[in-house]
Amino acid sequence: MLVMVSRLLSSKLDISELLTTIMRLASRVVGAERASLYLLDEKAQELYFDVALGLPEEVQKMRFKLGEGIAGTCAKEGRSIIIADAANDPRHSKKADSKSGFITRSLLTCPMIIKGKVIGVVQAVNRIEGTFEEVDKNNFEAFASQAAIAIENSRLFSSVKEEKRKMEIVFKRVKEGAILTDLNGEIILINSAAKTYLEHDKYKFTNVSGAFQAFEIKPGIDKVSSCDDAACRFELFRAKPKKFYMDGSAIKLFKEDKEGNQVAEGKLWILTDVTAQRLEELMARSFLSLISHKFKTPLASINGFAQLLKDETARTQLPDLVKKSSETIHAQGQKLNGLVESLLNFVTIDDLGAAELEKIEFDASEFLSEVAEVAKLWHKDPVQVTIKVVATEPVMVKADRKLLATAIKAMVDNAVKFNPAKDKLVILSAQARDGYALISVGDNGPGIPGEELENIFHKFYQVESSFTGQVEGWGLGLALVKKIAEAHNGKVFARSQLQKGSAFTIALPA
User: What number does CATH give the domain 278-350?
Assistant: First the structure.
């Protein structure tokens, strides 16, 4: 009987079907007239009928607190109880009998226990022949143990099934394309957005390696698939039938092994349509390039004649108003020329491809020492600006020296311009870590609020003037640094503490 019960219970995963099966088997195991099954409501600490075969509705709604009646006592104490004469036993609660009209003569009640915790009670009512004996109790406990395991498995299955259902709803409804794969790239799930973006109906791909047939992918699919980082970024572009740009991320998914170690089990590929953004950037870049070039010629004339006027007023006796006006025109012309130059530099570098870089190998520590000497000439007041180099060992990088110097200059300029302190300190440093050469520029400025750390690398962005004492400029310095880092397949990031200072770091592949 117990072997048959075990097979039956292990074959049921639907909780309601399982509980009904337990109820029907319970009475047969010990030859009882009927059986009851109570589950424990952990929050309320009460027993309730989940399935009550043949009981009136008012009885089915009844609840018993822990310690109330035989079932409540069994659940509270976690041990089996045999009652030979229920009518004369004070522990037996008569309220179920009074509402159902059923007469309880004898009871065998066993707790259902999983991992030392009571999850419910199963009860055999009225032995058909004789009274419940110790052997019945042993058999019923074995049955209760099997029932508890089956209920726990069913609950776990239902929980997993529900979580899977929720995940699939989210997965399918998100606006971004999403593909779930195993480590070999075989597709487990793909949502409707990804199917549309990648023309799944046309190409019928089953592996992510065939998903991007209509697109140019940077870096290549092999490089993205073999990427060791927790998240690997890539870009997709399709020229026809219309220009289509997507940003992609391949995110590794991990599980814990028996020793508690994180083991990769698959990847989640996220695809975001950035076509409108990219086209807007192309238009903006063309516009910036146009105006910066158009400004160059008239500015050259304005600055040339402004210099002549300034020199002439310095040599001759002219009214103070004329002298002051000529000096102002000259100074503002130079300032405007600097802004146009920085805009032109940004547009030039923005259009620069990795193949156009003039890369050479050099020691970053020595390079920073050279940059520091030049930087001291940019900021001529040595009392106010102190520039130091901290490099304990050689750090070799392969990069375009001129572009890297431009990036360092932009970071040093920021460190000085946005620092209201009387004595400004700028520290240049280089170190090798985790396969990257890290080149940093630190300062003793006011720091940057945490929520601004991502925004400061965007074009034309500056932290509000009430915080930084806003200075003139386009807000292109750090955007330029980011472009230069990315052109070298590197990245840039910032760390900051308010009232203590900031550090900006370019990470280049060593």
Answer: 1.20.58
- pLDDT digits 0-9 by tens, 248-275: 999 999 888 888 888 889 999 999 999 9
Place of tokens 């130091």: 388
Q: Are 131 and 96 in contact (CB under 8 A)?
A: no
CA–CA gap between residue 161 and residue 371 (Å, rounded): 61
Dump pLDDT digits (tens) for 12-43: 667 667 777 777 777 788 888 888 888 898 88
- Quick check: 136 and 2 in contact, CB under 8 A? no
Position 332 confidence tier, pLDDT thresholds 50, 70, 90 = confident
d(C-alpha 19, C-alpha 52), whole Å: 9
Mean model confidence pLDDT for the chain: 83
Separation CA 38–CA 55 (nearest Å)? 13
Task: Return the CATH class of domain 2-162.
Answer: alpha beta
Long-range contact set of residues 401-404: C-beta below 8 Å, sequence gap at least 24: 401/358, 401/360, 401/362, 401/367, 402/358, 403/349, 403/352, 403/357, 403/484, 403/487, 403/488, 404/367, 404/439, 404/484, 404/488, 404/506
Q: Which residues pair with 452 in a beta bridge?
A: none
DSSP 226: T
Q: What is the CATH number of domain 357-509?
A: 3.30.565.10
Q: Can you say whether the dihedral through the CA atoms of 275, 280, 285, 286 is positive or negative?
A: positive
Does the pTM of the predicted model rise above 0.70?
no
How far CA 79 is from CA of 70, 125, 134, 141, in Å, comes to 11, 17, 13, 9
Three-state DSSP at 480 gives helix
Residue whose entry in the numeric block shows the structure tokens 């402004």: 306
Report the CATH fold assignment for 174-273.
Beta-Lactamase (3.30.450)
DSSP per position, 433-449: ETTEEEEEEEE-S----
174-273 shares the fold of 2-162 = yes
Radius of gyration for the alpha carbons in the chain, expressed in angstroms and rounded: 38
- Measure the CA angle with vertex 21, ends 18 and 22; round to 5°: 90
Residue 469 pLDDT more than 70?
Answer: no
All structural domains of the chain with their residue ranges: 2-162, 174-273, 278-350, 357-509
Q: What angle do CA 97, 102, 104 make, to 5 degrees?
A: 75
Q: Return the closest-CA partner of residue 441 out of 470, 401, 404.
A: 404
Q: Regarding predicted confidence, which is higher, 129 or 102?
A: 129
Reported confidence tier of residue 383, pLDDT bands at 50, 70, 90 = low
Q: State how far the alpha carbon of 60 is from the alpha carbons of 14, 102, 118, 247, 486, in Å.
A: 20, 14, 21, 57, 68
CB 227 within 8 A of CB 248: no
